[in-house]
Amino acid sequence: MKTFAPVALAVAALCSACSTVGPDYQTPSVATDAPATYAKRHAGSPLLAAPSPADAAALPADPWGALGGDTLKALQQRARERNADIAGAALQLALARMQRDVAASRAGPTLGVSGGVDRRRQSLTDPSTRILEIFPPAAQQQALDILGAPYTLYQAGFDASWELDLWGRVRRSVEAAEADDAAAAALLADVRSSIDAEVARAWLDLGAARQQIAVLQRQQASAAELLDLLAARQRHGLADASPALRQRSVTDDLAARLPPLLEAEAGAWRRIELLCGDMPGGLAQQLGRPARAAAPAPWPALALGLPSTLATRRPDIAAAAARLHAATASVGVAVADLYPRVMLGAGYGSVSVGSSNFATGASQQWWFGAHVDLPLFDGGRRRAAVTQRELQAQQAAVAFRQTVVSAWHDVDAAVARYEAERRRGDELQRRLAASDEAFALARVRFQRGLSDETPLLETERTRLEAEREALASQAQQGLALVAVYKALRVDGG
């Protein structure tokens, strides 16, 4: 105990002087250059900026449910459970958490127990036997007989070691590992959000293709009816064959448009199955039924004036910040390697030739002490490692900045696209309504014999074109809304 007291006092003095070297992480600002009135800043025409909250509808509490109903949410949930990208991100998170546990384990002491029983015989020509030459020949032979006799060695022991984290090397390692864990968790959330958006995109493409097929079938029926009417006028000598031939060309054109629409439907179907991890045809029960046409979603109110809102929604920003945190902590690990390492150790055990004396005090042994490790010369390797980690931290800071800027541009682009398509859709709906009225009027005039078939054919073609463009615009509005949700990283729950 008298010997141990100075060591204990020295250890206490070292622990009191403990410090964590290296830079401390500072949470970066998400809105470095974005003012509080960011909503007034927009790339391009102000007409395509997000509307004011007073003129906008609130973001639905269940965005994906409002967009595609329970069927879409069920498909998204299936994709979350079976998608390979999500599974890979989840495994990466599990790996990061195991690495965090490994780093944290270095903060405590290492304990071990050992034991064994060996049957041995010592070599009589071992260099250590040369010491016997100082004895008379008779004594030498007697000693060799003893040394050459086989014996059983019993040994058991307990040892412990603990590296004093004087400079925070272990603490910085744990800090970096926890930041890597946070980055992996954010990456998993980002992948899930992206897969949700991709499933919604494919779902809308499937519904749009089926809507276009349904409209095309109605157009084919209308065109066939008009063809029959023109053929009847030709048979009664009221017109020549030209109008019927032109209408036949229209019906053939409509028939030629069906195969591409069927292929688009099958392509969207396959994309959903691939995202859900199913083989072709595996979702026939869920996707085989005709999709209900989704009503146009209300314009969501985007809180672009609050940069912190975007930061909480975007897991890629959180992942970039966590990577910056890990890089900053790694600088501290490299700096701590410049300082000496102090290791405390202790051991206790028993070693005996034969079992009779194994438990006696004469067979017991123990030790304790401290060891210091400080390389004096390494060619500048450790200093270079510090500079390398500092440059990596600077790279992480640049990457974080670029992630934030890209996030704002993603939102701005998605908003502009949605607003442009919404305005275009309003105009196309008005054009379609006018075309319907013109076609109805032309049809009545034709049936009453007040005009020939030319105005009817022209208004029919105009109405069909307006209907196709309006339908395509409605589908594009849905896809643009999905892009807005993706830019905001809407969580499907």
What would you note in describing this structure?
- With 493 residues, the chain is α+β, with helices and mostly antiparallel strands.
- It has two domains: 384 residues, Up-down Bundle (Outer membrane efflux proteins (OEP)), CATH 1.20.1600; 87 residues, Outer membrane efflux proteins (OEP), CATH 2.20.200.
- The protein is 61% helix and 10% strand.
- It is built from twelve helices and four strands, in the order αααβαβααααααββαα.
- Strands 1-2-3-4 form a four-stranded antiparallel beta sheet, with no helix packed on it.
- The N terminus is likely disordered.
Draw up the topology in text.
Blueprint: H1 4-16, H2 63-82, H3 84-105, E1 110-120, H4 137-148, E2 151-164, H5 169-235, H6 242-256, H7 258-275, H8 284-287, H9 307-313, H10 315-336, E3 341-353, E4 364-373, H11 381-447, H12 453-487
Antiparallel strand pairs: 1-2, 2-3, 3-4
Descriptors for this entry?
12 helices; 61% helix; single chain; alpha+beta; 493 residues; four-stranded antiparallel beta sheet; Outer membrane efflux proteins (OEP); disordered N terminus
Question: What portion of residues belong to β-strands?
Answer: 5-15%
Shape: elongated
pLDDT < 50 runs, ≥5 residues:
1-9, 35-39, 291-299, 301-308
Write the CATH homologous superfamily of the largest domain. Answer: Outer membrane efflux proteins (OEP)
The appropriate CATH architecture of the largest domain is Up-down Bundle
Strand elements, count: 4
Strand order of the largest sheet: 1-2-3-4
Estimated structural class: alpha+beta
Quickly name the level 1 CATH class of the largest domain: Mainly Alpha
Largest sheet: 4 strands, antiparallel
Please compute the radius of gyration using only Cα atoms. 40 Å
Order of helices and strands: HHHEHEHHHHHHEEHH
Summed over residues and divided by their number, the pLDDT gives a mean of: 82
First and last CA, distance = 62 Å
How many domains comprise the coordinates? 2
